[in-house]
Amino acid sequence: MIVGLTLALASAAATNLAFLFKQRGAVLAPAIEFRHLVRSASGLFHSRWFLIGWMVALVAWGLHVGALSLAPLSIVQAVLSGGLVFLAVFAERFFGFELGRRQWTGVTITAAGLAVIGVTGGGATDPHRASLAPLLAVEGGIAVVSAVLVRFSTRRHLAPRWQGLLLGAAAGALFGVSDVALKYLTQAPPGPMFGLVSPWLLTALVAGVIAFFASARSLQIGYGVEVIAITSVAANLGAIIGGILVFSEPIGSGPLAIAARALAFCAVIAGAALMPAPMRATPARAVPESSPMATPAS
Question: What does pTM read for this prediction?
Answer without folding.
Answer: 0.77
